[in-house]
Amino acid sequence: MNTTRRGFIAGASALAAATASAQAEKAPAATEEKKELGRLIVSPPILQNAAETSMGVGFAVSDMANGYVEYSESPDMSGAKRVKCGGFRVTDMNDKIMLVRLTGLKPATKYWYRIGADRISYKGGYKMSIVGTEADPRVYSFTTLGPGAASTFCVINDTHAHMKPFGMAVDKIAELRPSCVVWNGDACNTQETIESFLPIFYTPAIKRADYAAEQPYMFVPGNHDTRGLASRHFERAIMFRQPEERLSRDWDLGRNFAVRCGDIAMVGLDTGEDKLDDRDIFAGLFNFEPYRVAQRAWLADALERPDIKSAPYLVAFCHIPIFDPRPDANPGDVDKDGGGRYKLDYASWQRTCKNLWGPLLEKAGCQVVIAAHQHRYRYDAPNAEHAWAQIVGGGPELGSYSQKKGDKYVKVPDSGKFPTVIEGKVDGGQLRIVAHDVLNGRVVGDFSYPPRKA
Ligand SMILES: [Fe+2]
Ligand SMILES: [Fe+2]
C-alpha cells in the first residue's frame, strides 16, 4: 500500500466514525480530556448551495462533534430554530466538517444565524456522551435567493488552492457584496484526503477567512475537482444541492442548479474532466460521457420552469468553455492530439457539451456563458452560430507562468495572466457583466445585454 492510499483511508475512516474500538483507544479519561481540549469549532461558517428556500452551512471541527445551526428572522435570534447536522435518523457525527441544511426558508429573506457543536466522546454504540458544547459567539446573517433578491452575482475560478489570488478575489467580492458567488471550478488540484479540503474551503490562509460566512457560494466543479481519491467524497466538504431542486430522475445531478437571483436566472452545469473517459491514464475510472448527456435532460426541464423561463436574463456557468475560436484548441472529443492538430492533450473547450447544451441555451435566449479552465481571461462575442457570448475567467497565475525548460520550470512574464472576479448585475434595464482583473486593479471587460424576448 502506498502512502497516498494509506492517507486517504485514515481520513475516510475517521469521517465514518464507525470503529468504536479505535475511538476507545484514542479517548483519554474524562478529567484528562478537560485539560487538553482545544477549540472544537475551528473555522467560520461557509454558506453553500444558496437557493430560494434553502441554504447550506458548513464549518470545521477538531474533534468528534455533533454540529448545529440556529437561525432566526430577527438579529436578536428570538424564536430561533435549531437544525442539527446530517439528515433524519442519526446525525452526522464526525471529526472534520459539520454540514447543516436549512430548508423551508422564505425567498429573498434575510436570516440571522449562529453555529455550535457538542463535543462527543464515543466509546461504543452504548457508550457515548457529550463532553462539552461550544458555540461561536458571533451572529451571522444571509439572504436567500429568489426573484425578489438583488440581481447581482460574482464569479471566481481556478483558484487551485493558491491563497494569494484567492485572497485578492475575496477582497474584491467583499467590496461588491453580491447576492451570491459562483466558484466556477478548479478550487482543488488533486485531493487524496478529506483533510486536504479544509485549507481550501474552510480554513484558507487569507485575511478574510470568514469569506463565506455571510456571502453565499455555489460550487460548479472543474476537472481538477474530480481528481484524487477524495473527489469521491467531495460531498463531505461541499454538500450536494437540495434534492427538491431536481426531479428524482436527476438524483445524482447534485451539482447542477437553476436559481433566480433577482431578474437573473443562473444555471450551473458540470463539464467534467478535460480528457476522454477511456484515456489510458484514467484506468477506466471516469464516467463523464453519460453525465454530460444526463445534464442535457435536466437543463431542458430547468429552462422550462416558470421561474427560470420568466427571468429577463439567463446566464449559464460551466468550468470548461463550450466554445473556442482558435482552430488549434483541443475540443475534448478526440484522443490526445487529434492527429497532430492540437498542442495540448486535454480539452481547451468541450465540443460535446456545446452540442448537448448549446442549442438549449440558444433557444432559451441565454445571454452569456461564463466559463473558466484556460487560465487566461477572454471574451468571445456572439457569432453567426450562437447568440450567447462567452466569458472565460483568468487563472491563479500572477503576471507570469511556469514553462518547462529542460528538467526545470522557469517563470515566464506574461501580463495576460491574472485572476479575475466577474461581476454580473442588472443595471439600467440591461444585464451588465464587468470583468475585474484583481491583480492589477483594473476592469478588463464591461458588456451589456438587453433582456431576452418573452
Ligand atoms: Fe484550472
Ligand atoms: Fe480546469
Q: In terms of topology, how is this protein built?
A:
Elements: H1 3-16, H2 20-26, H3 30-36, E1 46-48, E2 55-60, E3 65-72, E4 81-84, E5 97-102, E6 110-122, E7 128-135, E8 140-143, E9 152-156, H4 163-176, E10 180-183, H5 198-202, E11 217-219, E12 257-261, E13 264-268, H6 288-304, H7 306-309, E14 313-317, H8 351-364, E15 368-371, E16 378-380, E17 389-392, E18 400-405, E19 408-413, E20 420-427, E21 430-437, E22 442-449
Parallel strand pairs: 9-10, 10-11, 13-14, 14-15, 15-17
Antiparallel strand pairs: 1-2, 2-5, 3-4, 3-6, 6-7, 6-8, 9-20, 12-13, 16-17, 18-19, 20-21, 21-22
Helix pairs in contact: 6-8
Bound molecules: fe (ii) ion (2 copies).
One fe (ii) ion binds next to loops.
* Secondary structure: helix percent: 10-25%
Distance between the termini: 59 Å
The chain-level mean pLDDT equals 92
| Annotation field: number of helices | 8
Radius of gyration: 22 Å
Task: Please identify the structural class as seen in this structure.
Answer: alpha+beta
- Gross geometry: globular
The spatial strand order of the largest sheet comes to 11-10-9-20-21-22
Spell out which ligands are present: fe (ii) ion
Order of helices and strands: HHHEEEEEEEEEHEHEEEHHEHEEEEEEEE
Q: How many extended strands?
A: 22
Strand content: 25-35%
Q: Characterize the main sheet.
A: 6 strands, mixed
**Ranges with pLDDT <50 over ≥5 residues?**
1-30
